[in-house]
């Protein structure tokens, strides 16, 4: 496989997997609501739908995926700040970072912000 093809396939895999995993959280929010988030941060809590529904769709289809990835990253910063602040410097009983899942989502999104979505998307942006 040509190196540029491999690079684009790698970005496609990252986009689709991150998009699907975050979208599952968005679907749960659609079904269960965001009341506790709105109670915590006010009307801004509804922006979770941007970060967990719209942004993952942008990632999956590769349409303005950098914007989608930035929205996911911002969403994860808010999620960490709202729900996981006391776990930022904590480890699990197995030695892993307490918020490794949230960290993986955050840094995968940041990687896509900087690398772009690759050529296997709707508009390569």
Describe the structure in your own words.
With 125 residues, the protein is an all-alpha fold. It has 5 helices and no strands. Helix 3 (48-61) runs antiparallel to helix 4. The chain is globular. The two termini are 23 Å apart.
Order of helices and strands: HHHHH
Number of helices: 5
- 3D shape: globular
Strand segment count = 0
Relevant terms:
mainly alpha, 0% strand, single chain, 125 residues, globular
Short structural summary:
The chain is built from five helices and no strands. By secondary structure, the protein is mainly α. The longest helix has 30 residues, at 3-32.
Topology:
Blueprint: H1 3-32, H2 35-41, H3 48-61, H4 65-83, H5 100-115
Helix pairs in contact: 1-3, 1-5, 3-4, 4-5
């Amino acid at each position: 496989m040509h190196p540029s093809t491999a690079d684009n396939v790698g970005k496609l895999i990252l986009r689709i997997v991150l998009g699907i995993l975050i979208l599952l959280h968005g679907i749960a929010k659609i079904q269960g609501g965001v009341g506790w988030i709105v109670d915590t941060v006010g009307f801004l809590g509804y922006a979770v739908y941007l970060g967990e529904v719209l942004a993952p769709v942008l990632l999956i289809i590769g349409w303005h995926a950098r914007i989608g990835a930035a929205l996911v990253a911002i969403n994860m910063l808010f999620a960490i700040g709202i729900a996981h602040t006391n776990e930022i410097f904590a480890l699990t009983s197995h030695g892993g970072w307490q918020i490794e899942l949230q960290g993986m989502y955050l840094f995968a999104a940041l990687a896509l912000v900087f690398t772009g979505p690759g050529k296997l998307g709707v508009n390569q942006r």
